[in-house]
Amino acid sequence: MAFSGGEELTGMILRSMPIGEYDRRVEILTREKGKISAFARGSRKPGSPLMASASPFVFGRFRVFFGRSSNQLLSAQVQNYFETLRADITATCYGSYFMEILEYCTAENMDADALLILGYQALRALSSEKFDNRLVRGIFEIKAVMLEGEFEAPDPDKYLPATIHALHFLWDTPPAKVYSFGVSEEVLRELLQIAGRLRKRTFPHHFQSLDILEVVAK
Q1: Would you place residue 4 in the very low, low, confident or very high pLDDT band (cuts 50, 70, 90)?
Q2: Closest C-alpha to 29, from 59, 6, 1, 5
Q3: Whole-prediction pTM value?
Q4: Read out DSSP for the chain?
Q5: 2 domain residue, yes or no
Q6: Dihedral angle of Cα 174, 179, 182, 186, to the nearest 10 degrees
């Protein structure tokens, strides 16, 4: 069945699941409507214009038809497929973990613009050779907690001054610019320790992608 019209939304695909023989169901984090789900009809057929665009990490403009019981992804104007990230299994695992966190902490019709930008910038950082993937993860987890309004500053006497400085920077900096610094190995260990504690408290959920990531990253 063909649909016309639909709404254009800016967003990123968080998850894509096969449905039936030829279709997919996608979760999209959008700037305009928060997290939405939609069916990508025929997207698993060879030659489908949606075959590549109905995949995790894809960022761009999506035209979606909103129905009474379900939504349909009609088309996509892709701005970034993140091909280099997909070619690296470890980076892909990090990216999948980030997408699962975003899926967990977002909902339909919420203002998710800042989280969308953070997720996009995290994928860009994973695609770059400039950043240690562990630092990308620590920054993502800490800033996500900050955006959720759940951040509690640690005791500065227990950490290096450079670690506390990094936390202040993340607090004061918008998501679009958080991936703009490097740290020593010692500071990285402290940031990851803080990030892990914040994640467990703020997102009390078992992330399957994290299980896979921790195995692959070793």
Answers
A1: low
A2: 59
A3: 0.94
A4: ------EEEEEEEEEEEEETTTEEEEEEEETTTEEEEEEETTTTSTT-TTTTTSSTT-EEEEEEEE-SS-EEEEEEEEEE--HHHHT-HHHHHHHHHHHHHHHHH--BTS--HHHHHHHHHHHHHHTSTTS-HHHHHHHHHHHHHHHTT------GGGS-HHHHHHHHHHHHS-GGGSS-----HHHHHHHHHHHHHHHHHH--S--HHHHHHHHHH-
A5: no
A6: 80
Residue 76 identity: A
The predicted-structure confidence for 66-125, as pLDDT tens digits, reads as follows 998 899 999 999 999 999 999 999 999 999 999 999 999 999 999 999 999 999 999 999
Residue 42 structural domain = 7-81
Pair (92, 197) in one structural domain: yes
Residue with tokens 């690296």: 88
Ramachandran quadrant class, 42 (left: phi over 0; alpha: psi -120 to 50; beta: rest): left
| AA identity, residue 162 | A
- Tell me how far apart the 2 most distant CA atoms of the chain are, in Å: 63
End-of-domain residue from the set 81, 101, 121: 81
